[in-house]
């Protein structure tokens, strides 16, 4: 049983003009034997994938309230203990709660809020998922927004 995966699609939300240059970099790894390995073209059901997002402030002033949202692909279940920071989770992308208050099977969206990124500073955000079913896989859209910190 194999699952086809495509590369992640970065989808930028409407950013304030000053935050328009906020940099997002994302990588997806296969977790195998405690190691992170490059993502193969096909991934067996039951595998664990790690989404690693780095958001960086390229400006010479701080940005505040950086919101990064990851829409999980279908046929995946998040591994709550893999989250960095204290993200919020949602079934529908509208009503967010602490991830511990939702059953992992119902989570489709994960959102982090980085309160302040100083000039040149970056934050690394991790979320692992278990591949729970077989079928064609869609990309996992990622969006981000921020407000000026001047």
Report on this model:
By secondary structure, the chain is mostly beta strands. The chain has one domain: Immunoglobulin-like, CATH 2.60.40. 0% of the residues lie in helices and 50% in strands. The chain has no helices and 13 strands. It has strands spanning 2-4, 23-32, 35-38, 42-44, 48-56, 63-71, 76-79, 88-90, 97-98, 109-117, 122-131, 135-136, 142-148. It has a five-stranded antiparallel beta sheet, with no helix packed on it. Strands 9-8-10-6-13 form a five-stranded antiparallel beta sheet, with no helix packed on it. A three-stranded mixed beta sheet has the order 4-1-12, with no helix packed on it. Strand 8 and strand 9 form a beta hairpin. The radius of gyration is 16 Å and the shape is globular. The termini are far apart. Residues 1-19 have low confidence and may be disordered.
Helix-strand blueprint:
Elements: E1 2-4, E2 23-32, E3 35-38, E4 42-44, E5 48-56, E6 63-71, E7 76-79, E8 88-90, E9 97-98, E10 109-117, E11 122-131, E12 135-136, E13 142-148
Parallel strand pairs: 1-12
Antiparallel strand pairs: 1-4, 2-3, 2-5, 5-11, 6-10, 6-13, 7-11, 8-9, 8-10
């Amino acid at each position: 049983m194999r699952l086809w995966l495509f590369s992640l699609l970065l989808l930028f939300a409407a950013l304030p003009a000053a935050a328009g240059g906020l940099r997002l970099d994302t990588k997806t790894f296969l977790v195998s034997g405690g190691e992170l390995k490059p993502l193969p073209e096909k991934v067996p059901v039951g595998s664990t994938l790690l989404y690693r997002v780095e958001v960086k402030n390229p400006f010479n002033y701080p940005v505040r309230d950086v919101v990064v949202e990851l829409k999980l692909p279908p046929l995946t279940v998040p591994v709550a203990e893999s989250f960095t920071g204290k993200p919020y989770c949602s079934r529908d992308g509208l009503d967010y709660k602490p991830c511990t208050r939702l059953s992992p099977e119902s989570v489709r969206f994960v959102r982090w809020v980085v309160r302040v990124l100083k000039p040149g500073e970056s934050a690394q955000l991790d979320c692992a998922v278990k591949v729970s079913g077989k079928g064609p896989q869609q990309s996992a859209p990622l969006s981000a927004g921020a407000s000026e910190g001047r």
